[in-house]
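Before relying on records like the one below, remember that each one covers exactly one chain. Contacts with other chains, cofactors or solvent are not represented anywhere in the record.
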Amino acid sequence: MKVFFKSVVVVLLLAASAYSSAESLLKLQQLLESIQSFKAGFTQQTLDNFGQAKQTIKGHMLVKKPGFLRWQTEGDYAQLVIADGSSIWIYDEDLENVTIKPMGKEMSETPALLLSGNVESIARDFEVSLQGNEYTLTPKDSSQLFDRLILEFDQQSLVRMAISDASGLTTEITFSAIETNLDIKNSMFVFEAPQGVDVIDSRP
């Protein structure tokens, strides 16, 4: 009887701590609207379906509204992703190539663009739920490259992002040395291809 009573209490507590989809969406939109720029270091881990780390990458990022992103990884897997509001450049240093794409729904490839984009699009593209400090975003469009995106906040700051795909892999990104609402110059989001690299431009 005691075990049953404890189980009921746990269920009731979980229910009380959960928010409706509309409330969760509103709270997330308010948080994201308060962030005009975001600067941080990050550690990115790829985990298999058993939770074992397969790869660890470090880097740093800058985000600025509307639509600006600079995401740079270091070491053996050095990559630079820059978005300027209309185009995205992806520079793979080891492959010596640059891919340029028009910005559309690239959130599926670069979820960090959530911080720099129009928060109204979240209601259109995702179902949102909130448990504790974690917002879970589930794409409404099954063609997205991920099945689930988790954003974890500590008060007003985004501290962790986890992206899960259909293969069972999870990419977990933990942010550090976080600074928000800095005055970041637009020149930080300009990319010029190094001489001699292949450029693949898929813009119209």
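The radius of gyration is 19 Å.
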